[in-house]
Amino acid sequence: MLFSNSYKTIFSEVNAEYKDKGSRFITFVYHINNEIEAKEKINFLKKEHPSANHHCWALVLGNDKEFQKSSDDREPNNTAGKPILRAIVAKELTFVLVVVVRYFGGKLLGVPGLINAYGTSTQEALKIATIIEKEITEKYLVPCGYEQHPDLYRILKNNVINLQATDIDVLEQGLIFEVSKQKAESLIKKLKEARFDIKPI
């Protein structure tokens, strides 16, 4: 169940560098839509930084931030992935991947030092990220013939602010449109009053 009509994410990719006792922690922050995109970003960084000692990461997905995952990538358990994840959650972000690439500097940081380094490096990167708030949307199919399109368009245009032509897909079986979660209930009611069938997709 969703408790909000919107969510926070980042506008575009950012990166930052943090140093501790000679070790370099290069942090990359990405907007992602799914796990596949996350894996592609992680694999890309492994190719870009093949001599790095660790590529630790964490991600949050879902309108409700319900999917969370992290990796220590051979650092001691819970010293890298979890601190990265905590920093993302603290900012209330979702659809975000953070990868911290570590180049070992020769001095051991110890468990507390690692937790601090990975957490701080993520926090510093997120400080420079542009955070945006996006409306949660829902998508519906309205089965109808072409002769019903004018009536349907009129209802959609009158009840969905700033609806663009690109927000509506015309298919052989009907129209697909996307609407903000906040406006969906009243719009569906009006469509049903006009005797249109509506199917969530």
Describe this entry's structure for a reader.
The protein is an alpha+beta fold and 201 residues long. The protein is built from five helices and eleven strands. It has two domains: 6-133, Impact, N-terminal domain (Ribosomal Protein S5, domain 2); 136-200, Alpha-Beta Plaits. 33% of the residues lie in helices and 33% in strands. The strands form three sheets. It has a five-stranded antiparallel sheet with strand order 2-3-6-4-5, sandwiched between helices. A four-stranded antiparallel sheet has the order 9-10-8-11. Strands 1-7 form a two-stranded antiparallel ribbon.
Q: Main sheet? A: 5 strands, antiparallel
SSE string, helices as H and strands as E: EEEHEEHEHEEHEEHE
Category by helix and strand content: alpha+beta
Task: Output the radius of gyration.
Answer: 22 Å
Characterize this entry briefly.
The protein is built from five helices and eleven strands. By secondary structure, it is an alpha+beta fold.
Kindly list the characteristics that best describe this protein:
Alpha-Beta Plaits; 201 residues; 5 helices; alpha+beta; 5-stranded antiparallel beta sheet
Task: Spell out the blueprint of helices and strands.
Layout: E1 6-10, E2 14-20, E3 23-31, H1 35-48, E4 54-61, E5 67-71, H2 81-90, E6 96-103, H3 110-128, E7 131-135, E8 137-143, H4 149-159, E9 168-171, E10 174-180, H5 181-193, E11 199-200
Antiparallel strand pairs: 1-7, 2-3, 3-6, 4-5, 4-6, 8-10, 8-11, 9-10
